[in-house]
Specification:
It comes from Shewanella psychrophila. The structure is a single chain. With 286 residues, this protein is α/β, with parallel strands linked by helices. The protein folds into two domains: 10-184, FAD/NAD(P)-binding domain (3-Layer(bba) Sandwich); 201-272, no CATH class. The protein has helices at residues 55-75, 98-101, 110-113, 130-146, 206-209, 219-222, 229-235, 255-264; strands at residues 10-11, 18-22, 44-45, 48-51, 87-90, 105-109, 127-129, 150-152, 156-162, 167-171, 176-179, 182-184, 246-250, 268-272. The strands form five sheets. It has a four-stranded antiparallel β-sheet, with no helix packed on it. α1 runs parallel beside α4. The longest helix is centred in the first third of the chain and has 21 residues, at 55-75.
Length: 286
């Protein structure tokens, strides 16, 4: 199904019933967008709302922008941007920004993860730079904004589908928007916290709930020493030497980042994994 294929925006009555409630909690929040959200008193229906500001939303917007940029240039003198009143992006941070993930690299080459322009991304033997990847995602959202897509600095708390087939998107700041289509780009959610308190099950991820049968002694004493990947990358961004220290890494693909960072700072880095041989392609950088 093509995104933004409708011809004209429509309006609705402000009172409808809802069904199929789906809660959306895993939106990122650090780097703020400069945007004053007006109260949702207007009953104009959006064609589509994009939830999130990461790479999956950037990929979707790249295709949309490619289709509408030509239309925008021919109508620029006499019309408003072609996507005005038809689409919005809701989110409060770019999840690969330094403030969220720390600096360093992503353990993929650029041609595998970059957004496409008029040509495919160039091949490179090097890993992608995190900040450059973050900036590229933000650039696609800015590109969409120039075509009339509205940026909303907020976090989505709920999505409801009404009997009329339209979706109502509620935010933490108390706004509600109505749309024909919702595109979710919210990632896999927060990191699993093995030290999370099991008493408040509503705040736990499904993975954390499955850890309820594991007892951890002296949680307070080890909290500062057991970090998720993002915490570790932010903590070590200042380049302080880890010489003489031991860093133990547990986890699959993303653990590569931690091992590389720890090793580059002089630590004795070890990785816990299953006792099986790993399969690697010829020329693998690890």
């Amino acid at each position: 199904m093509q995104i933004l294929n409708a011809a004209q925006p429509t309006t609705i009555s402000t009172h409808t019933s809802d069904q199929n409630v789906s809660t959306v909690n895993q939106t990122s929040s650090v780097q703020k967008i400069s945007d004053k959200v007006q109260a949702a008193s207007s009953n104009q229906v959006q064609d589509v709302i994009f939830i999130g500001r990461g790479s999956s939303i950037a990929y979707a917007l790249t295709e949309v922008c490619d289709r509408y940029e030509g239309q925008s240039s021919t109508q620029a003198q006499s019309h408003e941007p072609p996507l005005t009143g038809r689409a919005m992006v809701i989110g409060s941070s770019e999840p690969w920004s330094k403030e969220v993930r720390g600096s360093g690299f992503i353990n993929h080459q650029n041609e595998l993860i970059d957004t496409w322009g008029s040509k495919a991304p160039k091949y490179s033997k090097e890993y992608a730079d995190r900040q450059q990847f973050s900036d590229a995602n933000t650039a696609q959202i800015n590109r969409a904004a120039s075509l009339g897509v509205r940026e909303v600095n907020d976090e989505v708390s709920n999505v409801k589908k009404g009997d009329d087939g339209l979706f109502r998107v509620s935010t933490k700041q108390g706004h509600e928007f109505v749309t024909k289509q919702v595109i979710l780009g919210i990632g896999a959610g927060p990191h699993t916290n093995a030290l999370a308190e099991s008493g408040d099950s509503l705040s736990l991820t499904p993975a954390e709930q499955r850890l309820g049968n594991i007892n951890v002694e002296n949680k307070e004493a080890i909290k500062s020493q057991v970090l998720d990947l993002d915490e570790f990358m932010r903590l070590t961004d200042n380049g302080t030497s880890l010489k003489g220290k031991t860093v133990v890494v547990h986890g699959p693909n993303a653990g590569i980042d931690a091992v590389e960072r720890a090793g580059s700072l002089g630590a004795n880095a070890g990785k816990l994994r299953k006792n099986i041989d790993k399969i690697r392609a010829t020329g693998d950088l690890i």
